[in-house]
Amino acid sequence: MGDSHRALTVSEAAAAAGVSTHTLRYYERAGLLDHVERGPSGRRRYGPQDLGAIEFILRLRNTGMPIGEIRKYADLVRAGAGNERARLGLLEDHRDKIVASLAEQRAHLAAIEKKIQIYAELLGVKPTSTVRTP
To answer: Which of 14, 50, 115, 122 gets the highest tally of CB atoms within 10 A of its CB?
Structure first.
């Protein structure tokens, strides 16, 4: 991204984050992002702090946190100091959901790996890939 302190246009910020401009505008309208600065022309200008917030929002979304919960978190952050316990609780609850989901996915993967092994043995071939589960 070159100069990390240079404000980016919505298109540049979207490209840097790997999302569409529509997504960034939606996140702003949905109250997930603080007010994004605007240049003299009225166009959005995303700074490093905005990009960090977008990255965290995407991590929360990609791990299944609903928009409403992300909005609660963003509102707490916007409110400033004094609500860190609430932020911690919200993130711990989400972490626990992710951990449960990972355990469920590992169980599904183990069943699929077992079935692959059965077919490979039946055919007398070596499976093309074996995934190691932690």
So the answer is: 50
Question: Is pLDDT of 1 > 50?
Answer: no
Q: Which residue has the tokens 């959005």?
A: 44
Domain termination site, one of 80, 109, 124: 80
User: 17-46 burial, b if ≥16 CB within 10 A, otherwise e?
Assistant: bebeeebbeebbeeebbeebeeeeeeebbb
Residue 128 placed within a domain:
yes
58 and 106 share one domain: no
Q: How far apart are CA 87 and CA 108, in angstroms?
A: 32
Sequence-distant (6+) residues with CB within 8 A of 46 are 7, 8, 9, 10, 12, 13, 24, 36, 37, 54
Evaluate if pTM is beyond 0.85.
no
* 1 and 50 inside one domain: yes
